[in-house]
Amino acid sequence: MDILALGVGEAADADFPNSSVTVAEGGFRLLIDCGHSVPPVLWRTFADPEAVDAVVFTHRHPDHCFGLVPALIRWADDGRRKPLDLHVAADVRRHLELLFAAGGLDPERDLPFALTWRELEEEGSIGPFRVTTAPTRHAVPNWALRLEAGGKVFAYSGDGRPTGQSEALFRGADLLFHECLSVHAVPSQPHHACLDQLAAFPQDLGVGSMRLYHVWASERAALERACAGRPGLELARPGDRFVL
Ligand SMILES: [Zn+2]
Ligand SMILES: [Zn+2]
Fold first, then answer.
1. What distance in angstroms lies between residue 144's CA and the mean position of ligand 1's atoms?
2. Residue 159 C-alpha to ligand 1 middle, in angstroms?
3. Residue 144: its pLDDT value, please?
């Protein structure tokens, strides 16, 4: 399993693109989330308009899905013919369809490739991956993801504080990407995780390695210091690549 971090930023990050990763296995590449600042890095990373086979969305916030319409338009312009599957919960599909309408994009009329909606469920599969999901505590429904293939496990939190269900989902992951806004809980941000809630995951959940993303710029230095000396726990950086 080949994981590449396209972006690790939070919603309004001046330095990093919005959080988004690709996960590849056996010639199949899945894009997780496509926020408003992701398309340029997506295009720079993958010149081939058919490089992505499917997209899955954790939730409907702009920093996780507002890049989809420009990505589709560029892939169409660049000659994509390969069908594309969108794996989404029902509420995300409704909002993405509004986004298409707002952007004047009718997928059936305007795209030279088939776009297929697939319902994201508690258990299912995407290409070669067995996929299970669990809710986190976020301002809108967010689905943390667990991808399994070839005996390896990659987990991705999307946004939100961990829940009992998401912690169970992450158990035993070889690599976990978890959002982490700050070192300590911030009262005004009840729907985002902090390091205090996550630091014990490697020991408690048997997580092999953990990368924190969606970090507040003002908290980066403090989080770097707090992660120092904790094996397997680091801040994610754009371009980070992991082969499991
Ligand atoms: Zn976000
Ligand atoms: Zn969010």
1. 13
2. 6
3. 98
